[in-house]
Design goal:
This is Vacuolar protein sorting-associated protein 26. Belongs to the VPS26 family. By secondary structure, the protein is of the alpha+beta class. It is built from 9 helices and 22 strands. Helices cover 20% and strands 38% of the residues. The strands form 5 sheets. Strands 2, 3, 6, 7, 10, 11 and 12 form a 7-stranded mixed β-sheet that branches. Strands 15, 17, 18, 20, 21 and 22 form a 6-stranded mixed β-sheet that branches. The protein has a 4-stranded antiparallel β-sheet with strand order 13-14-16-19, with no helix packed on it. β20 and β21 form a beta hairpin.
Length: 467
């Protein structure tokens, strides 16, 4: 028989999937030492392989079945005989039979619910573990493997500041203020203390972080206080109106999230304890509860940034359906319109406005556009020119240069329409254009009229004429 040392026995080894890359965390044991365990989160699957190695080769091992359990339980140190299990899952690995050689069995607990965080305190312990059992008639062969579970929380929607006025009547009145009421485990506590009335001689002031562990219920309730950290924030007697700043970093301490009524067995709460000590060693204190929560790791943020960068790189590749010669992948029609807006075509500008004082060609002198004044064109002509250029710019060809139309050569020279405003007489450019554009027949008629008037004045007496 095995209990006499003559029977067959076996060693059990549990290997978790992804153990090489899985993160590990520390937790205290019952002895006060810290050990590292594989870290899991709520809703995460637990899978792996169970290896059974026989100690004596050539002999068989009879069993009533092989099973693996995923257990979550609460252990109270003052009641060690009773373990309170809140999670228990069982997988059967092998039916009753015999083992003649080493065997390996795979297992998987899919999306296991882990409602609470692992905790090891003064009077209570909450733990998760895998337990493999080879059921035998006289004594079972078991092996346990502890796992660590962290519960992540999101940023609280309401996180008001803490402000309270306390003191002793006619002796001491102080007002303390903390920036928040809920802090994550790596946060910083920032606050101020105002002295409104000081009639006692205060020697120094300190602030402490206290963890209060409550186990049991009713008359069997036990409270255990533990001072996590203590700071002296003031030394000497303060005066009225003085303010003392507070800044406490939580990252350097072994803290856990606040736990309230875990499975109706225990609670863990944290308090900020403000203590004032006078010269007679009397202590005045005020406790204020704060809430601690666990924040997600920052390692996930670069992964999201990489995914966003990949999406941004994929978007231009999908939109680049046009050749690279067009700016920003625009079609040719839009490119021509953009070029037209950036470099307008010359016919839209009146020629007399920017014309240099050079004698125009005979074709330009016969064109009605050069005979007009430098005022803007009428609305009818503007609409006609814009429609003409809109049709011209729909093609991707370069903007055409302005050439005078051929039909203007044969058209007779007409005076400017009466709807246009009269031209300025003092304009040298207009006088030059009129001198070049005037016909010789009009000058001869004027000379003849002058001659006739001179003959009449020489032959006739002067007669008064109405001007």
């Amino acid at each position: 028989m095995s209990f006499f040392g003559f029977g067959q026995s076996a060693d059990i080894d549990i290997q978790l999937d992804g153990a090489e890359t899985r993160k590990m965390a520390e937790m205290k044991t019952e002895d006060g030492k810290k050990e590292r365990y594989y870290l899991y989160y709520d809703g995460e699957s637990v899978s792996g392989k169970v290896n059974i190695s026989l100690k004596k080769s050539g002999s068989r091992l009879e069993h009533q079945g092989v099973k693996i359990e995923f257990v979550g339980q609460i252990e109270l140190y003052y009641d060690r005989g009773n373990h309170h299990e809140f999670t228990s899952l069982v997988k059967e690995l092998a039916r009753p039979g015999e083992l003649t050689h080493n065997a390996a069995f795979e297992f998987e607990f899919n999306q296991v619910e882990k409602p609470y965080e692992s905790y090891a305190g003064t009077n209570v312990r909450l733990r998760y573990f895998l337990r493999v059992t080879i059921v035998r008639r006289l004594s079972d062969i078991t092996r346990e493997m502890d796992l660590l579970v962290h519960t992540l929380s999101s940023y609280p929607e309401m996180n008001n500041s803490i402000k309270m006025e306390v003191g002793i009547e006619d002796c001491l009145h102080i007002e303390f203020e903390y920036n928040k009421s809920k802090y994550h485990l790596k946060d910083v506590i920032v606050g101020k203390i105002y002295f409104l009335l000081v009639r006692i001689k205060i020697k120094h002031m300190e602030i402490a972080i206290i963890k209060r562990e409550t186990t049991g219920s009713g008359p069997n309730t036990f409270n255990e206080n533990e001072t996590i950290a203590k700071y002296e924030i003031m030394d000497g007697a303060p005066v009225r109106g003085e303010s003392i700043p507070i800044r406490v970093f939580l990252a350097g301490y072994d803290l856990t999230p606040t736990m309230r009524d875990i499975n109706k067995k225990f609670s863990v709460r944290y308090y900020l304890n403000l203590v004032l000590v006078d010269e007679e060693e009397r202590r005045y204190f005020k406790q204020q509860e704060i809430t601690l929560w666990r924040k997600g790791e920052r390692l996930r943020r670069p992964l999201q940034q990489q995914l966003m960068a990949q999406q941004i790189q994929q978007v231009p590749a999908s939109q680049s359906k046009f050749p690279q010669s067009h700016p920003q992948g625009q079609p040719p029609e839009l490119v021509s319109e953009i070029q037209e807006q950036q470099h307008p075509i010359a016919p839209q500008i009146p020629p007399n406005a920017t014309a240099a004082p050079e004698p125009p060609s005979p074709q330009q002198s016969q064109s009605p556009m050069h005979e007009e004044a430098p005022e803007p064109l009428p609305s009818a002509t503007v609409t006609s020119t814009t429609t003409h250029h809109a049709t011209a710019t729909t093609t991707p060809q370069p903007p055409p240069q302005l050439e005078p139309p051929d039909e203007d050569i044969d058209t007779p020279k007409l005076p400017s329409p009466p709807t246009e405003p009269p031209n300025s007489i003092d304009s040298p450019e207009e006088e030059f254009l009129e001198a070049q554009a005037g016909s010789p027949s009009e000058e001869e008629e004027e000379e003849e009229e002058e001659r006739e008037s001179a003959v009449k004045t020489s032959t006739q007496e002067p007669v008064p004429v109405a001007q």
